[in-house]
Write a structure and sequence with these properties.
Elements: H1 2-16, E1 23-26, E2 30-34, E3 43-48, E4 52-59, E5 62-66, E6 74-78, E7 82-83
Antiparallel strand pairs: 1-4, 1-7, 2-3, 4-5, 5-6
């Protein structure tokens, strides 16, 4: 019985872990998408809270993501800024991309994040 319980706990834990192909959402107001898995890598894109992402792979605490309909761009985001649940109830897909003139973001809102 003890081994069955341990097996079930392990199976449940494995289903909660992120994996390639998972849909993720930005959980912070503004986040940098980087060329590589480090704060030393250049920023290629900035996204706003609620942007929908597709996980491609993980490297430590960093996740490579496909940003959706943003010109097919991919990049790296720190895992502390994303999650499987949509927070705030509004998906921004593909909106919420810096460089898009339709996006109204005040400079004070664009905090430098990881």
């Amino acid at each position: 019985m003890k081994y069955i319980f341990i097996f079930l706990v392990c199976m449940l834990a494995a289903s909660v872990l992120a994996a390639p192909g998972d849909i993720l959402y930005v959980h912070v107001e503004v986040v940098n998408i980087r060329e590589g898995p480090s704060t030393k890598d250049p920023v290629v894109l900035m996204l706003l809270k609620g942007h929908k992402l597709l996980e491609l792979q993980r490297q430590g605490e960093w996740v490579e993501v496909d940003t959706g309909r943003t010109g097919g761009k991919t990049g790296w985001i720190h895992s502390s800024f994303i999650g499987k649940e949509l927070i705030g109830g509004e998906t921004r897909d593909p909106g919420g991309v810096f460089g898009d003139p339709s996006i109204k973001v005040q400079p004070s809102e664009a905090k430098q994040l990881r």
